[in-house]
Amino acid sequence: MVGSRICEVTTVNMRETIFERDQALRGFRGQTIPEATPQTLERAEKIASGIVFFYDRTEVSVGLRGIDWSGSHIDHQEWQGQLNRFFHLSPLAAAYAATRDERFAQAARSYIEDWIDSHPGYAEAEEFMPYDCGLDMSIRLGTSHSSGWGGVLPTFLSSPAFDDDFLASLLNSVREQAAFLSDHLTPWGNWRISELDSLAFTALRFPFLDKASELLSCGIEGMRASLATQFLPDGVHFERSFGYHAWMAEVLADYYELSRRFPEADAKVDAEMVIRAFDYAAHAELFGGNDSRSPHRDPDTLGYLGKRAAVLSRLFPGKDLPAAPPCEQIFPYAGHVFLRSNWKPGADYLAFDAGIWGGNHNHLSRLSFVLRSRGRELLADPGALTYEMSDPFGPYGKSTRAHSTLNLNGWNQCESDARLLRTEFTPDTALIHARYQGGYWEGEYGWSFEKGKGTGLFGIHDRILLWLKGEYLLALDSMDADRGATVHNCWQMGPMDGWTAEADSLRWWSRNADINLLVQWIPFVDNAEMECFEGSRVPLRGWVVLHGNDAIPAPLVEFRYPSVFETGSLSAVLLAPFTGNTPPAYQVKHVSQGRWRRVRHLALAVPSGGVDLVTWDKDLTTPVEYGSPVTSDALLVWLRLDAAGKPTKCFLLDGSYVEYAGNVLHESAKREVKLVRLRP
To answer: What mean pLDDT do residues 547-568 have?
Structure first.
């Protein structure tokens, strides 16, 4: 057990040391008291009267004495944690720093003192007390990222409420909790990093604690190993969820900075990893995948792009770094692809999930994607609807049928990884190809398949996205499955002002004042049907996250059709952003499948009056060859004809030539990925 008592120093010296270390740690988020805005002061008044906020929104009256720390006020697993993490101290500290009103300091003492009185046993405890855990304890004590008791203490230290007796009691509890935590660390994940962070910062804030050097060593040595192993080579935290990644990226940057201030606290952070981590954070801010959320409208400024710039310029002042990451960036170890037209709000934006499984915060959403344009979320990830898995919204939000991907019979994917097979980008086009082959399962998934996966169905899903930038996107899907299954092809939109569905033509479009989306079925499959949901509770369909722990209705379009055993079930869906009240006129002129049903052909009349010809192999492994009227050794060909029927440009995937109507349009010495602009 690390630590048994507070070192023999006077309270005067302890107070001086706390103030000195507060100055030395200034700038870290956990050592920063929020600004005393009118909203913060109003909140502090309520907290001082015994009201604590759940998810920063819901007022919960807990009192100042005799508090029920088990959190029975709300039947939600997160409430218990948030109450015991003491987030409510920061508004009190802000209000006290601004006003010197002793009511705020006295309230802070009351909350802390009541917790200490209710938890006297950590000096001899062998396990966490009921309703407590390592994550809650670490945040309560304080980290580089969360103030906790340690981060707010310097603000209150001059108050009569924080007299010598109470200070000694508080520090004794801190010592006992930190010592216990050092012997009961979580093996992995963001919990472990937060716990190690807490040990290191507790030792740095209070170096006079007995065995503080051992706490620091435990924290720094553990942090060195955890940061090195929990970040993937592409810079993404292995849990692959934006909110947790952003937190962990900030900790990574904090510990790079910390080694400059305290050489004994050097976790050997890799500078290049910091840069890659903030590149991902900037891209993923508008994604909302897995246990995250994204704004339904683009913010006025891209927060993590700005944070990236601020952090990198502070940490690497002499390094010549670009102001923004590339607009098209692949994170192969995470399985995520991001494309955007520029780094301004309102840009066209696509985020694709071919994720490698990253644990309980992941959703069963392989091969789904998000599409945004002109500042609006058109295709959305539902995000984390709630962490309370006894609430049906919890498992639903994680389910495959809640995401813009395919499933069988409405069942779930499993934790199997997807594979990102191919990405190719040109100025006019983008192509993404990925595969999921883990089957589909009847069991319900919350934090796990707690009751088992149940009955399963064989299924392999291949998805090819072909994006004609600024125009439309084709989702070309193939599902290999046994006979008798029904393929569900789902499209979860963001919240819309209104919408229209045409069951006969299998078209859906939104009716917004700013930007809209057309979703149009391309009839490679007979007897497909379409159903639309929005805010449905029976069945539970058509919801996306609002703030976190809540949901807002949003349209979900589902196409259903029978599986085809011999050759796989092909489907194609067109998605086209547009402005105005009338959806653009895309007309399917021709669809066909070649021999063995591998090569597919599509002729699509586009609003400009021309025709786009698309020919591709189902899994991009076989040349399209004699794909009348297009012939090529490429795996996929997109050819645009103008209104007069003349070819104007084409995209070849691994092709050396392309012929149309008996004429050679392009020929080169080797097969290549190429966008060719054709001469009139």
So the answer is: 88
Q: How would DSSP label each residue in 381-429? A: ------S-TTSTHHHHHHSGGGSSSEEETTPBP-SPPEEEEEEEE-SSE
> What is the Cα–Cα distance from 100 to 478, expressed in whole angstroms?
66
Per-residue confidence band for 1, with pLDDT thresholds at 50, 70 and 90: very low
| Three-state SS at 502 | strand
Classified by CATH at the fold level, domain 11-187 comes out as Glycosyltransferase (1.50.10)
Q: What is the pLDDT of residue 10?
A: 76
Measured CA to CA in angstroms, residue 4 lies from 208, 214, 221 at distances of 12, 12, 21
pLDDT value at 490 more than 80: yes
pTM of the model: 0.95
Q: Which amino acid is at 450?
A: E
Distance CA 429, CA 471 (A): 10
Q: Bin 46: left if φ > 0, else alpha if -120 < ψ < 50, else beta.
A: alpha
Q: Is the separation of the CB atoms in 288 and 380 below 8 Å? A: yes
DSSP letter assigned to residue 29: G
Contacts of 23 (CB under 8 A, 6+ apart): none
- Please name every residue paired with 336 in a beta bridge, in sequence order, or none if there are none: 331, 353
pLDDT for the residue numbered 547: 85
**Would you place residue 4 in the very low, low, confident or very high pLDDT band (cuts 50, 70, 90)?**
very low
Q: Where are the domains of the chain?
A: 11-187, 328-588+602-619, 589-601+620-680
259-308 per-position pLDDT tens digit? 999 999 999 999 999 999 999 999 999 999 999 999 999 999 999 999 99
Mean pLDDT, residues 383-411 taken together = 96
Alpha helices in 121-163 (DSSP H): 134-141, 148-156
Class for domain 328-588+602-619, per CATH?
mainly beta
Distance CA 253, CA 256 (A): 5
Residue 357 confidence class, pLDDT cut points 50, 70, 90: very high
Those residues whose C-beta lies under 8 Å from the C-beta of residue 410, and which sit 6 or more positions away, are: 401, 488
Report the chain's terminal Cα–Cα distance, integer Å: 81
Tell me whether domains 11-187 and 328-588+602-619 share a fold: no
583-586 CB contacts, 8 Å cutoff, 24+ apart: 583/507, 583/509, 583/516, 583/518, 584/518, 586/472, 586/518, 586/520
Quote the CA–CA distance of 216 and 201 in Å, as a whole number: 8
Which is nearest to 250 in space by CA: 165, 314, 183, 188?
Answer: 314
pLDDT digits (tens, 9 = 90+) for 596-640: 567 889 999 999 999 999 999 989 999 998 766 899 999 999 999
Contact of 80 with 129, CB cutoff 8 Å: no
